[in-house]
Each structure stands twice: as structure tokens, then as C-alpha cells.
Amino acid sequence: MTALHTDATAALNDWAPADPDQQALRRDYLAHLAERPDGLFKACLPAHITASALVVDPAAGRVLLTLHPKVGLWLQMGGHCEPVDGTLGAAALREAVEESGITGLTLLSADGASGGRPVPVKLDRHEVHCTGKDQPANTHLDVQYVALAPAGAVEQISEESLDLRWFGYDELPELTDGSVRRLVALARELVD
């Protein structure tokens, strides 16, 4: 087992969501990791763990979303784990920094602040074609975090996005799915 696998298992074991559906997903993710030592990497098919982070500017009451080129929806930052990621939180933070262009992001920890051990906020299982349009769909087992933006943070679009924009909590764009809306609502509760 890699350090990343060990950390992901510990992070999911330590997280105790109140929602029964999230508890069921957590058990499914843990079963996946128990069965698959490679379960965090894109090559693991038909499913693999991914990590994402919703970038939040609590002082301004807004979130940063990316218009995903393959999906055509406004989403949080995120993607595949890499062998260089020491922890699942580090993978989510790396993706958030890469896709937002914002340095100084910190993940929300168990005590609702930044700087402690990051904890997941939500899990989301969804079908994607990350191995290519002509390949069968596979499943992302996404572990979602909240990343706090420093005051005055300025985003910079990357080649991974069609667009990148800040939205007020109550002003999410039409092309935002229910999963992202629930993530924003959870983040708002945690940071307000």
C-alpha cells in the first residue's frame, strides 16, 4: 500500500457524516480501497477515487467554479490523484491550485478552520469518460473538500477550463448540477 492509500483509508474511516446516503457512499469507497491497492489512480477501472475542492471566499460570500470542457457544467476544482500526492487532501489542494491559479489556498479542517487535518465535506459518485470518448464510461468516487481562498485572491484560468468565475452562494449559474449546489450549501454552513 502507498502512503496515499493509507491516508485515504484513514481519512474516510475518520470521517463520520450524519447523512445516511453519505455514510453508505463512505462504506462503498472504503470497500473499493480495501479491494484495490491501485484504487486511487486513473488506471484503476472501472472505478477510482478522485479528489476535489470547492474554493470559497468566505469574506465575500462566494465560490469559484470552473466551466469543465468535457462535461459542460460549472464544477468545483478537482481531478485524479497522482503518485506524488502524499495525502488525499494534498491531491484535492493540488488540483484546486492548478485549476484556480490561486496560491495560498488552505483546506478546511475538522474544527472548521484551516491548518489542521483536512476533512472531507461530501462524497459524490458519478460516471465519466476520463479514459477517452471512445472508451467505456468509468466511475469517479470523488472525495470533496473545501478550500479557503486568501483575502483578495485573484483567479487565473488554466487550459483545463473553458471559463473560471466567482459566484455568490445564492447566484450559482444555471449549468450547475445538484451535487455542486449541495456542496456549496454545505460549504456555506461550515464557513459562515
From TrEMBL:
Using the record's annotation, list all stretches that form the Nudix hydrolase domain: 46-189
UniProt organism field: Kitasatospora viridis
Judging by the UniProt lineage, the source's domain of life is Bacteria
Identification of the protein by name: 8-oxo-dGTP pyrophosphatase MutT (NUDIX family)
Instruction: Output the Pfam families linked to this UniProt entry.
Output: NUDIX
